[in-house]
Amino acid sequence: MSNTSLERRLRRRSVHRSRSTAVSIALVVLVLVAAWIGLEAVLAAMGTAPLLVAPQDAVNAALRPDAAGTTIAVASAVVLLVLGVWLIVLALKPGRQHRRSVPNDRAVVVVDDHIVASTAVSAASLAAGISPDQVDAWSKGRRIGVRIVPTSGFPVDEHVVKAAIEDRLKSLDSGLAHRVSVDIASKGVLA
What we know:
Blueprint: H1 5-15, H2 20-46, H3 55-63, H4 67-92, E1 99-102, E2 109-112, H5 113-128, E3 135-140, E4 143-148, H6 158-172, E5 179-184
Parallel strand pairs: 4-5
Antiparallel strand pairs: 1-2, 3-4
């Protein structure tokens, strides 16, 4: 597998989510607050009525709080704290997409989890001898779950289905088959 810096960067950008939306929202909020403060300052300098609160009234209320002012200050502090924690979590948490990188010598190959789940559905339906409509699968991280609704009167061997799914995924790439769980419904459907 080639491991140039360009390929590593492409792989990372394909698998991880961009944080530009969160940054854009934070900047828009910051610009709106700054514009509001500037507008209030200009209105106060012109001697006209404030839009929401005059800057001097806001400073006076902050320096000499009464019961209502304290409640507003506490509520504002809680909102700002929650917003700050949310932005810190967005900044530090890796934004994972539902994709995984597959080693390849010629190119960067990224496989979506829906493709992995669809492959599991195909393998399970062939191993169980049922229609793909009777199989549901999901893939998240290193786990793959498959739910089978068998045809009434025809039992499905869970171990055979699980082995077929693992073999199919290993034939595509050894890193795809991690933990496969198969759940067979107790009630079947009529064929």
